[in-house]
Amino acid sequence: MPNVKIYVEEAVFAEQRAALIEALPSIRALLAEGFNVDVPAFQFAVMPVVAMPDLPLINVELHILPKPERTRAAVLAVCADLRALIEGVAGCRAAIRVMTLDPETYIALK
What we know:
Blueprint lengths: L2 E7 H26 L7 E7 L8 E7 L7 H19 L3 E7 L10
Parallel strand pairs: 1-2, 3-4
Antiparallel strand pairs: 1-3
């Protein structure tokens, strides 16, 4: 169920839009394998934003449900691979943030 939000500085978005869109299946595959989830579980959003030039120009926020196999080390490894993939596509620094959701209160109607 990863909810994936990719915030891209607007100039980078304008320049790299096609490459980022082309990379989405690879990003999804990486996350599906890394978190052991099926494709229908995903929600993606890629948005241009105004960003501060001294901070990462791409920010990725992942919301995931906790599972025993999603240890800190396992999640960090997926995040490192994701950052490398996105930075390789966009040619700029990316920050990755992961939040785990409370399975008792999380609701998704699809």
